[in-house]
Amino acid sequence: MAMAFHPLAASRVRLAPLLPAAATAAAAPSSSSVAAHHHHHRRRFSAIVATAAPVSAPTVFDFNAYMGERAETVNRALDAAIPAGEPPAALHEAMRYSLLAGGKRVRPALCLAACGVVGGREEWALAPAAAVEMVHTMSLVHDDLPCMDDDDLRRGKPTCHVVYGEPIAVLTGDALLSLAFHHVASVGSYPPDVDPEKHPARVVRAIFELARCIGSEGLVAGQVVDLENTGKSEVVPLERLEYIHLHKTAALLEASVVIGAIIGGGTDEQIERLRKYARSIGLLFQVVDDILDVTKSSEELGKTAGKDLATDKTTYPKLLGLEKSREFAEKLLSDAKEQLAGFDEEKAAPLLHLAYYIAHRQN
C-alpha cells in the first residue's frame, strides 16, 4: 500500500511564527546558591537542580545514563512543584499520584536536549520540561476516564479515576494544566543566568507554543476526532488517522522540542528543523504505540494491552498491517535523522538517540 500521505508537516498542521533569538552562553549556578527560597509554596529553581549531574556529553553517548539523569532532575522539579499535604489534600494527593507515578519522561528529555542542541544550557529549559510533563499527565488522566478511553491501568498502576473517583480525576487534570502554565511563567522557575533582555520574550513564545499544542489546534482536536472515529463501521482514511496522531500525540512532542529550542536561544532555521524533527518522532511514537498494543502484554506495557483491538479503534496496524506499519516507522525515523544533520553531532546525540529509542522501545 502506498504511503504518500506522509509529507505530514506543513499541509495539515499550521506552522506557528518563530521567535528570532541568538543562543547565549553562561556559567552554571554554584551549589551555594541553593537557598530556602519559596514562591507560592514551591521551591525555586536552585533548590531543584542542586544535585543535577553535569551536562557534559561523553565521547561515547550513554543513552540510559542520559535518560536516567534527566528523569531524576525532572522528577525533583515535579515533586517540588506540587505541595504535599496542603489543602485541598485530596486534589494535591491525586496530582502527585498521577504526576509522580513513573514514566520515561521522554517529553521533558526532548525539551532539555533541544535547548542544548541550539547552544543553551539545559537548566534554562527545566521549567518548560516539567510543564510539558504536567500537560502530558493531564492528558493521560483525562484519556483514561470512562467517558474517553476508559482504562483502569496506567504506568503499571490503577488509573487516577479508579483510585480517587471520576470528579477528582477530572479536577486533577484541570489543576495540572493550570500548574503547567504557572510553572513556565514563574520567574522563580528559572536560574539567574538567563539573558535578562531576551528571556521574557522567549517565555512568552514558549507559553504560546504550549497553549497551541493543547487546544483545538492540537491535543484536544486529536482526541475529538479520535473519539468520533472509534468504533465506526466504515474504514477511517489514512489521512484522518495521521491528523488524529499529529494532533493527539505529536503536537505535545513538537511543543516539547520547540519550547526547548526557543528557551535555548535557537535561530529561526534551527527551530524550524527541530519542529520537523519533532513531528516525525511524534508520529513515530504513535505508530510504535499501535504496534506495541498488538504485540506486547499488559505486564510488558504497564497498561492494558489489546485495548485498541477490543474497542475497534483505528490504528496503523489495522489500516496498513503490521509489516507496513513497521516500514512506515523506519521512514519516520529516517526523516527525523535528516533534520538533525545540520547540528553539531555531539550536541545532537541526545535527540538522535531519543529518536532511535522511540522507534525501538518495547513499552
UniProtKB/TrEMBL annotation:
It holds the Pfam family polyprenyl_synt. GO terms for molecular function: geranylgeranyl diphosphate synthase activity; metal ion binding. Keywords: Coiled coil, Isoprene biosynthesis, Magnesium, Metal-binding, Signal, Transferase. Belongs to the FPP/GGPP synthase family. Residues 1-15 form the signal peptide. It comes from the Eukaryota. Its cofactor is Mg(2+). GO terms for biological process: isoprenoid biosynthetic process. The keyword Isomerase does not apply. This is Geranylgeranyl pyrophosphate synthase 2.
